[in-house]
C-alpha cells in the first residue's frame, strides 16, 4: 500500500465523519422565551416578548471528539518535531513560513474576511500538507545525512535497524508506542520503505516514510 | 494440528493467563496515556509533546500529574487562551481607517513630481499651491517673518510651489526626512482673515496649517504609523485578557476590570491624532482615563486606571472599533459572554404593510422580535461614540442639546454625528419629541435611559450576578476542549463546573478541571 497517497485520503474519510457540524439552520424551537431584558432593567412588556436563542446543540456524542490539528498547532508543532525545521515557501524571492503565508488558504481565520477557522480536512488542505511534508522531510533528511556521529537524528534514527527507526518515528510523530520486538502498526511503513528503497535507494526510502507519517491521520488528527 | 491452529491456541492460552493480561493492561495504559499527553499538549500548549515527554510516559506507564500542572501554568497556555479570545472577539483592526487623506503623507517618489514627503489629498495641495502639484526639489525659502516663499510656475501662473524642509518625524525621531514646506508647517494655531483662531490639529483648510511639530498630526503608512496604532489596539485588548489569566485574577475582570495598559503608539495617537478621523472615525482624547504623554516610538506598556464609563474589554478600542455600532457591541457581548444570539422567529408581513413604517424598532413588525432585547442591551454603550472612540460624558455631550434641536442642527458637525436632528425625522408624530436628544435616547424609556447612564459595566455586572457569565465561560471552554458544545447529557457536569468556576473565577482552574474529566481523558484516540 502506498501510504503517501492513501494516508491523506484515509484522514479525509475519517475526519469528514468526526467533524460533522450542525447545519446552521435556525433553531425553530428555542428552549427559552425571555422578556426583552432578561435582568429586568428595561422591560417594555406592553410590546410583547423577544426571543433569545441559546447556541443550538446538535451533536450526539460521548466525550471529546477527535479533530484535525489547526494551522496554528501545525505551525507550532513541526519545529518541535524537527529541531526548528519548518515549512517554508519562496514568495517574490523571499523564503517565508508556509503556515503564515498560506494561512488564509489553509482555513485560518483572520477575523476580517473570515471569523471562524475552516478545519475541514479538505482536498486543498491535504494538498498543502503534502507540500509541507515534502519540504520538511527533505530538509530533515538532509540534516540527518549531514549530522556528525553521535548527533541525534531527526528521521533516520538508526540506519542499521529499520524497525527501530520506525518505532522511534511512530512514538515521536504519532505518539504511539511500539515495544521492542513488536512490529504492530509498522508493517505498511516497512513495506513502503522496502519498496521505495529497492527502487531508488535508502534516502528516498526514508523520505517516503517521513512523508507518509507526516500526512497520516495519526499526526494530523488528535 | 496445523501450525496456524497451534499458534492461535498458544495465543489464547497466553491471553488467558494473568501474566499476559498484565502485559496487555500495561500496554493499553501506555497507549492511552500517550494519547492523553498528546491531546493535553496540543490543547494546552498548541503543539505536540516532545519525544522526551513521550518517553517518560513509556517509562512510567502514566502521565505524572505535575506535567499537567506545568502545562496549565506555562506561557504556552496563554498563547492558547489568546487564540480562544481571538475566536470570541475577532480582534483584528488591520483594515480600520483611522484618519482621512488630508492627514496622510505620501513618500517621495524619486522623481521631480514628488521630491519630498507631501500630502496627496487635493484639498491640501490645491490650497497650498493652487493646483494638484507637490513642491520643488530645492530647499525651502522663507522671508524675514518666517513665511514660506514660493515660485510661480512658468506655464500656469495660478500655481505657486515651495521647496522642502528637513524634519525629524515622530515615528523616527533620530532621523530626518525631506517634507514639502507647506505640509511640514508647525503652527499650532493660526488666525484666519476674520480674526478667528484656528486649531491646526483639526483644520485642513487653512494654508497656514500643516502636519504640526515633528509631523505629529499626520500619518505615514509607508513608515508603518497606521499599522503600529491598530496593532497596539489589538494587542492592548489581548494582553489585558492574557494578564487576567496569567495572574489568575478573577476572569470576571475581563468584563468588569477598570485597569488596562497603554503604549507609545496608542497614547500618541490619542493625544495628537485621534481628532483627525473626522466623520470617518469620530475620536478624541476624551476617554475617561488619563492619557500619558508618551513618544510614539515607546513600545513599553504603562498601566492606567480607567473611570466609571469603562468595563473590562467592553470599552477598549479593540472592542469599540471592531464592533462599531451599539447594537453590534451588544450582539457580540451576547455571543461571547452569554452564549446567546438574536434570531427572530416572528413572521414578516409583506413589504406593503404599513407596519414597516414604524420608526421604533422595538415596535416595527419583523424587527421587534430581536430589537425588544437588542435596544435595551445596546443602550449600555449609549455614551460611547458609535463608529468611533469617545467617552461621551454628560458635561461634554448633554442628553439634550438645544443647538442640535434648532433648524440648523444638522449643519453642526457634533449634532450631525451624535444627536437626533430635524433632518433625521421621518415620522413627526412619534419622533419630534426626540429632536435635539443624544441618539441613544431616541425612543428610550426610563429603564433604557438608566442603562445608558450605567454604561457597559451595567450589563457586565448583570451577566456576572445572574451566573450567565460563568456558565457561558464554562460552555465555551468545554466546547473548545471537547470539540463540541455540551450535550444535554453533559449539562449537569457543565453546571457543576460553572458552580465551581463561580467560586473565584479562575480560568486556569477551570481548564485544569475540564482536562481531568473522564469525558476528556477517555476520549477516542485521534487517528484511529
Describe the structure.
The complex is a heterodimer of chains A (222) and B (528). Chain A is mostly helical and 222 residues long. Chain A has a two-stranded antiparallel sheet with strand order 2-3. Chain A has helices at 3-18, 71-81, 98-101, 123-146, 162-174, 187-200, 202-214, 217-220, and strands at 52-54, 88-91, 94-97. Chain B is built from 21 helices and 13 strands. The interface between A and B is large, with 62 and 78 residues. Strand 1 of chain A pairs antiparallel with strand 13 of chain B.
* Strand order, largest beta sheet of chain A: 2-3
Q: Which descriptor suits the 3D outline of chain A? A: globular
Gyration radius from CA atoms of chain A, angstroms: 24 Å
Distance between the termini of chain A: 23 Å
Structure classification of chain A: mainly alpha
Low-pLDDT residue intervals, each spanning 5 or more residues of chain A: 1-44
Radius of gyration of chain B: 31 Å
The count of DSSP E runs of length 2 or more, i.e. the number of strands of chain A, is: 3
Strand content of chain A: under 5%
How many distinct beta strands of chain B? 13
User: Percent helix among the residues of chain B?
Assistant: 40-55%
Please bin the fraction of helical residues of chain A: 40-55%
| Mean pLDDT across residues of chain A | 82
Short overview:
The complex is a heterodimer of chains A (222) and B (528). Chain A is mostly helical. Chain A contains eight helices and three strands, in the order H-E-H-E-E-H-H-H-H-H-H.
Detail the topology: elements first, then pairings.
The complex is a heterodimer of chains A (222) and B (528).
Chain A: H1 3-18, E1 52-54, H2 71-81, E2 88-91, E3 94-97, H3 98-101, H4 123-146, H5 162-174, H6 187-200, H7 202-214, H8 217-220
Chain B: H1 3-16, H2 18-45, H3 51-60, H4 65-73, H5 75-89, E1 105-106, E2 118-119, H6 122-129, E3 141-142, E4 148-149, E5 151-152, E6 160-161, E7 164-167, E8 177-180, E9 189-191, E10 197-199, H7 225-246, H8 253-256, E11 259-262, H9 264-273, E12 302-305, H10 317-320, H11 326-337, E13 340-342, H12 368-378, H13 402-405, H14 413-418, H15 428-431, H16 446-454, H17 456-465, H18 468-482, H19 491-501, H20 507-515, H21 518-521
Antiparallel strand pairs in B: 1-2, 3-4, 5-6, 7-8, 9-10, 11-12
Helix pairs in contact in B: 2-3, 4-20, 5-7, 11-12, 12-16, 18-19, 18-20
